[in-house]
């Protein structure tokens, strides 16, 4: 039997990472946090003083980076042996991740790594093109969406809780800008077609979203 692959796509701030972690736990398969992989390269570029729009140098960073995930109640993202879990969750690195993810060579390097992980162990993968480019063959594709204002408010509260000085209007503007970047980039843009089940998370609790996905997977897998 082929490993179980669940694809969860959608724009920034819809709750993909949290939902993916909980779905993976419910289905007892690994979570492969693809967004964290692009954030890791964005962090590496920022640290090295590499312009995120310098495609050859950013591609070189991606080709040579070692990225691992350590499962647990709070999964960890490891870059070249260093725990960077918290370092990649800032507005600056979010924007850097959006830029580096638009570089074709970066996407090729990380997609190859994602496919190797998924085919070896199965898993829940979240991102913007998992169901269209990374694992288009999986029957389990979900597209999460939410109103930009809702997503910005969630991000605002999250950063505030971490003690960061944040401005809601700036976060909303960044959210809208990132949507535009992700949906209009030439390589693997954010798209949704009729092979996905769309779930609007604006007015749903996380548990409701997780239950809807798990029920759909179990029901379809049983047949």
Nutshell version of this structure?
By secondary structure, this protein is of the alpha/beta class. The chain is built from nine helices and eight strands. The chain has one domain: Rossmann fold, CATH 3.40.50.300.
Task: Walk me through this protein's architecture.
With 223 residues, the chain is α/β, with parallel strands linked by helices. It has one domain: Rossmann fold. It is 53% helix and 14% strand. The chain contains nine helices and eight strands. The chain has helices at 16-27, 34-48, 55-64, 91-100, 104-121, 130-134, 148-161, 168-184, 206-222; strands at 5-9, 31-33, 67-70, 76-79, 82-83, 123-127, 141-145, 197-200. The strands form two sheets. Strands 2-6-1-7-8 form a five-stranded parallel β-sheet, sandwiched between helices. A hairpin with a 5-residue loop joins strand 3 (67-70) and strand 4 (76-79). The longest helix is centred in the middle third of the chain and has 18 residues, at 104-121. The protein is globular and about 50 Å long. It starts with a strand and ends with a helix. The model has no long low-confidence stretch (mean pLDDT 90).
């Amino acid at each position: 039997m082929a490993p179980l692959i669940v694809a969860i796509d959608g724009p920034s701030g819809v709750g993909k990472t949290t939902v993916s972690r909980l779905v993976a736990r419910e289905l007892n398969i690994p979570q492969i946090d693809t967004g964290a992989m692009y954030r890791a390269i964005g962090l590496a570029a920022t640290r090295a003083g590499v312009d995120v729009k310098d495609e050859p140098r950013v591609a070189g960073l991606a080709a040579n980076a070692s990225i691992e995930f350590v499962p647990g109640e709070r999964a960890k993202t490891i870059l070249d042996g260093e725990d960077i879990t918290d370092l990649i969750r800032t507005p600056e690195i979010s924007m850097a991740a959006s830029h580096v993810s638009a570089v074709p060579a970066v996407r090729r390097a990380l997609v190859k790594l994602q496919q190797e992980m998924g085919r070896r162990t199965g898993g829940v993968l979240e991102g913007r093109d998992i169901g269209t480019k990374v694992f288009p063959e999986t029957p389990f594709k979900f597209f999460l969406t939410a109103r930009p204002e809702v997503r910005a408010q969630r991000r605002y509260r999250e950063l505030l809780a971490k003690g960061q000085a944040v401005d809601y209007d700036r976060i909303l503007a960044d959210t809208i800008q990132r949507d535009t970047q992700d949906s209009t980039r030439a390589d693997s843009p954010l798209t949704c077609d009729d092979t996905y089940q769309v779930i609007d998370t604006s007015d749903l609790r996380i548990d409701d979203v997780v239950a809807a996905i798990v029920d759909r997977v179990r029901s379809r897998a049983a047949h």
